[in-house]
Amino acid sequence: MEDHPPPQQQHPRSERSPLSDPEVQRVHAQLMREKEEPQEGFPPLPIALLFVFAIMVFICGIYLGEHSAGFSAFVYDPNYDPSTAQQESTAPAFDPIARGERVFAQKCAQCHQSNGAGLPGTYPPLVDSAWVNDTRVVPSAILINGLVGPIEVKGAVYDGSAMPAFGDLLSDRDIGAVLTYIRQAWGNQSGPISEEQVAEARSLYGSRGSSWTADELLALPALETVSAEPEIVQEGEETEAQEEASGEGEAGAQAEGETEAPSDPNTI
Predict the structure, then answer these.
(1) Which of 10, 95, 100, 205 has the fewest CB atoms inside 10 Å of its own CB, making it the most exposed?
(2) Model pTM above 0.85
């Protein structure tokens, strides 16, 4: 005989609604009285809050106008003033020696070496070279048009390789800078070559279609542009010039003294 659990007692489902409870209905009625009726849209902002927002926007606009630095992406100084910065910013002075050294390292050092000594039998040296320290037109003409054929430098003949033309590769300023550098480097003491002198040489020989030979370079005239080299005066000549200048100065002083001498007060 099997044991079965006792049958559960079934209670009849309550037919009474929870809302029918007087206590619950009373609480709901109280909540409904305290709650406002819903309205469509959003309630307007208080006038005072609008004034606060307007003042904040105004202050922020003034701050950005004074400290925005023109909204430049390259400025990080809050006190930057574009008007005064443009007046204070000046281009750095051009240094032909520094620029010429850079150009030489890029274009010339491969052949003439960084010390200007060149390679024996192939590339002539630039140290104490008469071609480097020659008149203004010869060095400029060599760089503008190039050089071919044998050339004698310091008693040695070099005919190993032609020198290319740099007239289309370098500007007048760069040619003048590199020539100024090599004329004052490694013990060379020649004067600088200006951009105007290179421009004159280019105007005369820039349209030449072929490179120079040594004989053609020797026949070139001097430039009309005033040389920047200081005049070399021998020691004896300098002494004579100083004595002449001293004599002229004393004579002038005497003549001036005679001219400014006071006259007789009784004379009209």
Answers:
(1) 10
(2) no
Q: Fill in the amino acid letter for 218.
A: L
At position 241, the amino acid (one-letter code) is: A
Radius of gyration of the chain (CA): 48
What's CA 24's distance to the chain center, in Å? Answer: 86
Q: At what angle do helices 96-107 and 172-184 cross, to 10 degrees?
A: 90
| Mean pLDDT within 114-124 | 88
CATH architecture entry for 96-218: Orthogonal Bundle (1.10)
For residue 189, give Cα distances in angstroms to 89, 180, 186: 35, 10, 9
Q: From CA 209, how far away is CA 153, in angstroms rounded?
A: 25
Q: In sequence order, what are the beta bridge partners of 157?
A: 152
Whole-angstrom distance, CA of residue 195 vs CA of residue 176: 5
pLDDT(254) > 90: no
Q: Which of 62-71, 131-140, 216-225, 243-252 has the lowest mean pLDDT?
A: 243-252
Q: How far apart are CA 130 and CA 147, in angstroms?
A: 15
Which helix (DSSP H) or strand (DSSP E) does residue 47 occupy? helix 47-67
129 has a pLDDT exceeding 50: yes
Range 18-44 average pLDDT: 69
Question: What are residue 27's phi and psi, to 5 degrees?
Answer: -65, -45
206 burial class (0-12, 13-18, 19+ CB within 10 angstroms)? middle
8 A C-beta contact, residue 142 and residue 163? yes
Q: Number of helices (H) and strands (E) in the chain: give both, helices first.
A: 10, 2
Element (H, E) at 162: none
The values of phi and psi at residue 151, to 5°, are -145, 140
Burial (CB count within 10 angstroms: exposed 0-12, middle 13-18, buried 19+), residue 235: exposed
